[in-house]
Amino acid sequence: MSLKRNIAANYASQIYSTLAGIAVVPLYLDFMGVEAYGLIGFFAMMQGWFGLLDVGLSPTVAREAARSRVQEQPAMDYRRVVRALTVVFVSIAFIGSTVLLLCAPYIAEKWLRVDALPADQVRLAVQLMGIGIGLKWLSGLARARITGAEEIVWLSGFNTLAATARFGGSIPVFILLNTRPDTFFAYQLIVAAAELAVLQIKANSLLPAVGGSEQIGWSLAPIRGVLRFSLAVAFTSTLWVLVTQLDKLVLSRLLTLQNYGYFSLAVVIAGSVLI
Prior knowledge:
The chain is mainly alpha-helical. The protein is 82% helix and 0% strand.
């Protein structure tokens, strides 16, 4: 696959997703109101903090996929790494989502300073966030495997389609159903589940074939060989999360949810410039 084509596809996908995310903001504000939009900002912030649990594993599996593609390592070794990391990711996603589900009442009633939104809607919205964040985080592992296999054009096209469903699909939901935040996050959860399913199928289709009767099995041993690289990446990513997300976490407690919505709007605009 041409390097230029991969770069062009990646840029086009990121530009489209960024512009789509900005374009729907006025519609979100019109349909949901600023206070409910603050929940979207809180959701984005929680996704950022959830990324700390990655500890560099996604870039690591991307590197291993690239090594397997050019046959720098046996197919069986790569598949064992994938199997081990998949179990680790699923376990962490389950634990993380469960913690968010259990903390949802505290977040909705004690942490967030809600004025007008009903408490039950906010609580359910936070619970749906918890599940959705876990699913989206699992999608990161599949994306890394696809990236390492250099299926960039396919992935860019799919990311564009997913962004369309995630952003644009919310508008018909508002029109046909209602503008409640829990309804919005229920829709986002459905999109995240569909996204994970498609990415997982694609990533599995790219696994190298193995011959003979040797079993893949499962063990943490394959991860030990890539742990040094993973931890080096984790140090950098941890610093990035702390620098970019700490203010959002603190302000989610100090500001009213309505003012946090205005702050989130500014973050979207500033973030688009960075992208």
